[in-house]
Amino acid sequence: MGNALAMQQDLVAFLVKQYQQLGPIFRIRALNQEFVILAGPEANIFVTQMGADKFRSHEVWDGFGCEFGAQNSLIAIDGPAHSQMRKLMKPAYSVSNLLADIPLLVDIAQTVVKRFQVGEEIPALTLFRLIVTEQLGRALADHAPGTNLQSIITTIRFGLNVHISKQTPSFMLKLPSYKRAKKDYLAMGQEIVDKHRTTVRDRKDLVDNILEASQKPEFQDMLGSEEQIVFASLGPFVAGLDTAANECTFLLYELLKHPQVLEQCVEVADQLFSEGLPTQEQIRAHNVLHDAMMETLRLHSIAPVVTRTAAKDFTFAGHSVKEGQNVMLATTVSHFLPKFYPDPYTFDIGRYSEERKEHKQRGAYNPFGIGTHICLGAGAAEAQIVLVMATLLHLARLEQVSPQSKLRVKNDPTPTFGTAFRVRFSEHRH
């Protein structure tokens, strides 16, 4: 078993303890796997400044892309090819592109909220997936998931848990429920691609850019087949499913636990909508809601650890790492070190004030991963979380169902409450 049980119970807490005892580099074993761990601010600074050629993603992520017939996907390639693909996709995943049509994004959230009557209950994650996935789908691929949402959830959850986290046995991919979901998921992707081939948009989106690049010789390895094009075009529906939606869930949970902060955030939300719709500048401004989002990302990071393979022999903190070794970059260990964040397990939005700026210390704040594969849409995710939460707080008042019950965070495949955190609509405000 090695360290598997302790890692399963609370991976980051386990790694924080090991870092405090052993320093920034150590080994762990879990079942039949061994990892070299690079942790703490020392590791974050090393990877940021000198790690570009020392880690590769291929071994970790290639199986996931191949599951859908898409070799050499963005997440599974390294080096110049990866940089080239990131450059292609970055404009579509930018803050300015996501927020280019704020009326559409707000309308999507409002339509979802209107579906629920006062007194009705729903898992918070389900609520946010309905909003976030459609917002990203419409903004980046001109397509709403509609009835395909559950197929997307099933396909991505099974695929990631089998190929990436490896906490689900591979025979699960033979289940009829998974096969049906995967078929529907890929059929939706083909529909999106076909639609983009036959229509012209006033403003090009991600799929338009992918189709245009697929005709160029330099992109043939990454976008040379229909399967690769479809898989890349489905990226927006994966992007927020286990990331922004879960972060919105954690943020709502923290706000309901801290009523004073919640009321301040409601005031900010009402101000944002006081003269119609908020602007891009207002959404990205430094305010209480923004700080609450930042603190939620610290405590409940989207990517608490990053798994890679050593691309070459190198030395870190006086120890040698050999090419081919499994490496885990424990980027968020710093989030729970008292030297950076006093009383680190306390939800404290004052950390991001001009006076404190605790997150600005070197190596102290990395909620979206690190290195060359850092989350492509990190800035857009922050803006989307703020906009979704502001819209929700302005439109409705929610309360936790069974607030006395203790919720446990699990990895499925990213940190989540799953459907255990349920909320009730107690009032429609506007």
From TrEMBL:
InterPro entries: Cyt_P450 (IPR001128), Cyt_P450_CS (IPR017972), Cyt_P450_E_grp-IV (IPR002403), Cyt_P450_sf (IPR036396), Insect_CytP450_Detox (IPR050476). Keywords: Heme, Iron, Metal-binding, Monooxygenase, Oxidoreductase. GO terms for molecular function: heme binding; iron ion binding; monooxygenase activity; oxidoreductase activity, acting on paired donors, with incorporation or reduction of molecular oxygen. It comes from the Bacteria. Signal peptide: none annotated. Its cofactor is heme. The keyword Membrane does not apply. Pfam families: p450. Heme binds at C375. Belongs to the cytochrome P450 family. This is Cytochrome P450. It comes from Ktedonobacter racemifer DSM 44963.
